[in-house]
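Saturday, quiet lab. Running sequence design on the structure tokens for the scaffold JK sent over.
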């Protein structure tokens, strides 16, 4: 199996569940008449690129094909950690290059090529800017040029998709506040947290989870809707390995049975690709190509108060204050640090809510804090109305795929600090003020069915197979 060289298991000290044997072992058929004889014979088995097992040496009997997908990994409760990294050949830089090389061969033969579209998260831009000592704008410009030079057809950022996710999350929160049901609303943009919730807490937590898609999957849905039937290969550059898991979910398949997001690479994987090709992003010329006119084409912006994870708490709290205080804007949100800097709350007064005099918000980063808030929700002792959850300590800027795992702890903290400062240099803009968001609702999400399909999803309890017979400590 070919995987990216930078994939490593790191930072697995937050939470570890007892492991178990694989729930889908390779089965070898044998007949009763020559069972003992078959046991003595050995053969060589290879796994093909499509995941099917085949014999590479002559043996008697047959080998039963077994398919193991990322969804099978999601159905296994053997490895729940803060950075659940699954090594699969489909989600690697090698697969990315394979598609680009296939396009080159097809182009030389006059055959229609797959349109390769790359979408880059703002957190990944910050990671690359920190690595190569560039500004955010320089990094994004040079990165576009690098990707276009190696055969990519289009490069987007996720600004509009993130704004759509924020706007829809605030709408969902207002609806729950009015009915009083389903509070606290818990964000679901972090696939590591979603995976943990589905496997470990199921029906206790899922009713509180937001149904709004993450920016990755909103963008994936839009790209699929505008493909016009052409063969398109969607690649996303994200700060976290768990985004590979998110892309593989069955809920995010196209009408034709493919994936809305074909491949996810982390910031670290892209960094290694750049170094393999040009040594440094500094050596790449700035991109001077004009941006296409599209609702999803935008500059790099962040919402006010966004600390690097999308700004869900900040946006929803500001919208709630405006909604429940006769349209008055709140000047600044006051954060109160609780047990640590990854656990902070905000309280806002409300004047025209019939059931509450104030609303409480909290962001919860890292599994140690997550387990405490989950315990309170399950016990009915959580007094928060909105909970922003991210699996990684310090949030998405510190995602498992952001920085080099060989860095010492002090180097990692320094790099995180640099990325955070670079992230904060981006201009602020409220998601509701993004003109492209209004265009998207008018032109793309023109009816309720399309809106629900493209901006929302659902989560499910994952049945585990953990017994005394297969448990391993």
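Result came back. Writing it out in full:
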């Amino acid at each position: 199996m070919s995987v990216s060289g930078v994939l490593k298991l790191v930072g697995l000290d937050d939470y570890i569940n007892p492991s178990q044997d694989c729930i889908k072992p390779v089965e070898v058929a044998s007949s009763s008449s020559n069972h003992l004889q078959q046991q003595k014979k050995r053969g060589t088995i290879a796994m093909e690129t499509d995941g099917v097992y085949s014999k590479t040496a002559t043996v008697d009997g047959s080998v039963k094909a077994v398919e193991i997908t990322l969804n099978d990994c999601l159905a296994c409760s053997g490895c729940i950690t803060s950075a659940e990294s699954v090594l699969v050949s489909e989600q690697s830089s090698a697969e990315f290059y394979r598609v680009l090389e296939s396009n080159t061969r097809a182009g030389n033969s006059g055959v229609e090529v797959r349109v390769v579209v790359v979408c880059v998260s703002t957190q990944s831009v910050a990671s690359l800017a920190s690595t190569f000592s560039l500004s955010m704008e320089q990094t994004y410009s040079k990165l576009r040029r690098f990707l276009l030079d190696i055969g990519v057809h289009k490069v987007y950022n996720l600004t509009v998709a993130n704004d759509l996710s924020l706007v829809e999350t605030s709408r969902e929160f207002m609806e729950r506040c009015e009915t009083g049901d389903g509070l606290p609303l818990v964000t679901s943009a972090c696939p590591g947290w979603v995976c943990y919730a589905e496997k470990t807490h199921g029906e206790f937590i899922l009713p509180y989870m937001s149904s709004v898609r993450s920016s990755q999957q909103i963008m994936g849905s839009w790209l699929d809707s505008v493909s016009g039937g052409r063969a398109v290969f969607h690649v996303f550059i994200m700060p976290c390995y768990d985004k590979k898991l998110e892309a593989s979910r069955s809920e995010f398949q196209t009408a034709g049975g493919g994936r809305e997001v074909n491949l996810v690479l982390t910031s670290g994987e892209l960094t290694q690709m750049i170094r393999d090709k040009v040594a440094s992003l500094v050596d790449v010329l700035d991109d001077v190509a004009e941006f296409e006119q599209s609702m999803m084409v935008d500059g790099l912006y962040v919402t006010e108060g966004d600390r690097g994870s999308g700004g869900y708490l900040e946006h929803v709290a500001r919208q709630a204050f405006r909604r429940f205080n006769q349209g008055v804007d709140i000047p600044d949100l006051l954060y109160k640090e609780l047990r640590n800097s990854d656990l902070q709350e905000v309280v806002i007064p409300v004047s025209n809510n019939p059931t509450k005099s104030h609303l409480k918000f909290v962001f919860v980063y890292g599994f140690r804090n997550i387990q405490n808030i989950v315990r309170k929700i399950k016990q009915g002792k959580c007094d928060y109305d909105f909970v922003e959850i991210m699996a990684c300590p310090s949030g998405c800027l510190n995602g498992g795929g952001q920085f080099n795992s060989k860095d010492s702890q002090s180097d990692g903290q320094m790099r995180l600090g640099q990325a955070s400062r670079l992230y904060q240099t981006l201009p602020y803009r409220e998601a509701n003020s993004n003109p492209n968001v209004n265009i998207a609702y008018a032109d793309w999400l023109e009816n309720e069915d399309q809106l629900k399909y493209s901006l929302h999803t659902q989560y499910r309890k994952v049945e585990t197979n953990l017994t005394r017979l297969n448990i391993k400590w």
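Notes for JK: The chain has 15 helices and 13 strands. The longest helix spans residues 159-179. Ask whether to fix the surface positions before the next round.
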